[in-house]
Amino acid sequence: MKLPDQGITRQELISHMQALRAYDADWQNGNTFSLVYYAGEEVIQVAKEAYTMFFSENGLNPMAFPSLKKFESEVIAMTARMLGGDDDTVGNMTSGGTDSILMAVKTARDMARAEHPEITVPEMVIPSSVHAAFLKAASYFDVKPIRVPVASDFRADVAAMAKAVNKNTILLVGSAPCYPYGVVDPIEELSALALKHNINFHVDACLGGFLLPFLRQLGLPIPRFDFSLPGVTSMSADIHKYGYAAKGASTVLYRNKSIRQYQYTIVSDWSGGIYASPSAAGTRPGGAIAAAWAVMNFLGAEGYRKLASQIKETTQALKEGIKTIPGLYVLGEPDMSVFAFGSDSLDVYALGDEMDVRGWYLDRQQLPPSLHLMITPAHAGIVDRFLTDLAEAVNGLRQGQPQATNGSAALYGMLAQSPDPVITKEFIRGLMDGLTQI
Ligand SMILES: *Cc1c(COP(=O)(O)O)cnc(C)c1O
């Protein structure tokens, strides 16, 4: 396919695009459990209006657009305050959680380079449950990841992490909560470990940053996880997740400026002029910055609390319902609205395929095999329908009458039988090439 010689009309274009959408995941009705964090039409309208209002503006140069500068500063200040920060806390908006994590790892690496030149092979000690973005960062920035298996409760194993710390360690990581199991790591103990060794400690609150504070206000026993703990040096919190902003909005925060300085890139002898950039991006969409500011101000703490309350009820009902289905169990004791369930008697991938047939899309996880749910306000009305379908799918499998003809069970079965990680990676690369091909 090549660029059309002549453009097509706006009308044709829109109707073609509408038609293509027909096969996309149906997130508005709560049939998906990842990718979209939906807080209702009004919030979407606010985000869209703000986004399109600043559609063309560029956050690259804050001097040209003082409005964007104000939005970003206020978003950072509000987020920092929500996460136990004080007047010294600083940060930046980024394009997403991965971007924030990349920045935090790069900052820790460059800080160690400046302050500990004796470290030639920097290492970071991470629980096995941290987001894959940390492995991306490790590979991009050449920091050796030391992956420490989580404890039996699926939380970071602090004693094992302490053992993994050595003179090359530049960074510890904990999650609040981690994506696979939705449990908050023992951040207080990790904070003490970081202080003891005088190393940086990043808390990944990409998922929980905009939800845990409100669940705590509603009375849930949320453990301490933020800057109120003195060993925490940086945090990430995504506004495009439970902040309900438009996609392309996250925050990376630092305890103070003297840490954040290592995030900056400054090129003073470029032909294009003095170029200073705080984070990875050059051009930055003004829309994403404006929409984040708008949604945060539209909802306010009260709005976020109301949504959190809805999520709390829905999560509780789904967890309880799943536990009553024979053979299914919830992994660990999830602290928030994200959790996984497994089975001691069924192939959960086959169960996932059965749920696909019934119009639900559940993410597949491994180590151990499980299905993943991420609850948003969109799921308030689906609990009964979901649990009925799940029980029916379980029964169908037990009776040897699956409805799905192929799906993830075959893929995961094959991967499980391929002990050679190189073959596995080759295979997955092939799949990815397939996905990006037209
Ligand atoms: C989503 C997520 C990330 C990555 O965020 P993206 O916005 O997808 O790049 C990192 N950490 C956790 C815990 C997450 O849930």
Question: What does this molecule look like?
Answer:
It is a single chain. This protein is α/β, with parallel strands linked by helices. It has 14 helices and 13 strands. It has helices spanning 10-21, 41-53, 66-82, 97-115, 133-141, 158-164, 187-197, 212-217, 257-260, 286-323, 348-357, 383-398, 408-416, 421-436; strands at residues 90-94, 123-127, 144-148, 169-175, 200-204, 234-238, 250-254, 265-267, 275-277, 328-330, 338-343, 363-365, 370-374. The strands form three sheets. It has a seven-stranded mixed β-sheet with strand order 1-7-6-5-4-2-3, with helices on both faces. Helix 5 links the parallel strand 2 and strand 3. Helix 3 (66-82) runs parallel beside helix 10. The protein is globular and about 70 Å long. The N and C termini lie close together (8 Å). The structure holds pyridoxal-5'-phosphate.
